[in-house]
């Protein structure tokens, strides 16, 4: 997919007319924490309905990418576009200008995220956790939100847990509720941040199988950070290897996992896969 140019009078994220607009686009993105530069001159695109997995060692910037898309972290420089629209900043007269909070919030409603640590509201029941955002952010009726929530609890295998509180659930059950909560917003983009890293090994497959079903039955765009290489290979259209805040290489999962071009990728996969 061609990289957009910052032509006069056009946004940096405006895709060429011959190509579809990427649903996610990073243009010259930089992110620093103090003197620690985590991402620098990062450029990549994710097409609508594409499932892209970010792999690489801890500290390589993968989770920061998701948090920037979710606006949980602020960009140091550059631009992020959601369906061609600036998420946090746009370019005006050669300067970075913040978008309005209202516009940022509107774009955020199109994005869902499932975190490592579940992040459920402990004072709310499972059902209340799932219906909170659809009612108060999307403006859905309580009746419709509850019906959707029950359907999603069936989908994740927890129909009997609607009135339970998170503290009474296992880690695997809490993560399944977190997936249902994210899907309740009907997101166009789903961000998955190491969703199995805090789980006991015996429940990892249960959670991954639910996400495989989501991938197989919807056209939601997914940006995934995981160390579960089998899952990455199964669900991804593209895999991007990160190290030191840079893309080392990218390509279809079969190529990355069976015939990577870069020695850094080979060493990482050897360490993770044990061969």
Describe it:
A hairpin with a 2-residue loop joins strand 1 and strand 2 (36-46). Helices cover 35% and strands 25% of the residues. It has 275 residues and is an alpha/beta fold.
Helices, strands, pairings?
Layout: E1 24-33, E2 36-46, E3 51-55, H1 62-69, E4 77-82, E5 85-86, E6 89-92, E7 95-98, H2 101-108, E8 111-114, H3 126-136, H4 142-155, H5 171-183, E9 189-193, H6 201-217, E10 221-225, H7 229-235, E11 238-243, E12 246-251, H8 253-258, H9 263-273
Parallel strand pairs: 3-10, 3-11, 8-9, 9-10
Antiparallel strand pairs: 1-2, 1-4, 4-5, 6-7, 11-12
Helix pairs in contact: 3-4, 3-5, 4-5, 5-6
In terms of DSSP E residues, the strand content is 15-25%
What is the approximate shape? globular
Instruction: Work out the oligomeric state of the chains in this entry.
Output: single chain
Uncertain runs: 1-10
Number of helices: 9
Q: Which structural class should the secondary elements be placed in?
A: alpha/beta
InterPro entries: AAA+_ATPase, ABC_ATPase_HisP-typ, ABC_transporter-like_ATP-bd, ABC_transporter-like_CS, Ectoine_EhuA, MetN_ABC_transporter-like, P-loop_NTPase
GO cellular component, one term: plasma membrane
GO molecular function: ABC-type amino acid transporter activity; ATP binding; ATP hydrolysis activity
Membrane topology: Peripheral membrane protein
Features:
disordered N terminus, 9 helices, globular, 275 residues, 6-stranded mixed beta sheet, alpha/beta
Short account of what is shown:
The protein has 275 residues and is α/β, with parallel strands linked by helices.
């Amino acid at each position: 997919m061609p990289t957009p140019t910052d032509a006069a009078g056009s946004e940096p994220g405006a895709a060429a007319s011959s190509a579809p607009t990427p649903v996610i686009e990073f243009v010259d993105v930089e992110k620093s924490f103090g003197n620690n530069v985590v991402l620098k001159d990062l450029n990549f695109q994710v097409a609508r309905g594409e499932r892209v997995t970010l792999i690489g060692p801890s500290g390589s910037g993968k989770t920061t990418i998701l948090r920037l898309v979710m606006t949980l972290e602020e960009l140091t420089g550059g631009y992020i576009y959601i369906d061609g629209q600036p998420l946090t900043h746009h370019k005006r007269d050669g300067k970075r200008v913040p978008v309005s909070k209202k516009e940022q919030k509107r774009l955020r409603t199109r994005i869902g995220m499932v975190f490592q640590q579940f992040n459920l509201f402990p004072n709310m029941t499972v059902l209340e956790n799932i219906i909170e955002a659809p009612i108060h952010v999307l403006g859905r009726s309580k009746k419709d939100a509850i019906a959707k929530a029950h359907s999603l609890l069936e989908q994740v295998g927890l129909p009997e847990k609607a009135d339970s509180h998170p503290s009474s659930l296992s880690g695997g059950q809490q993560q399944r509720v977190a997936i249902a909560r994210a899907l309740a917003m009907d997101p166009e983009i789903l961000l998955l941040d190491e969703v199995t890293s805090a789980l006991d090994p015996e429940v990892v497959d249960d959670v991954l199988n639910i996400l495989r079903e989501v991938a197989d039955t919807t056209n939601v765009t997914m940006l995934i950070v995981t160390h579960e290489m089998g899952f990455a290979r199964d669900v991804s259209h593209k895999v991007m290897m990160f190290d030191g805040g840079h893309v080392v290489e990218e390509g279809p999962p079969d190529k990355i996992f069976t015939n990577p071009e870069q020695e850094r990728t080979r060493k990482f996969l050897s360490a993770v896969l044990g061969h």
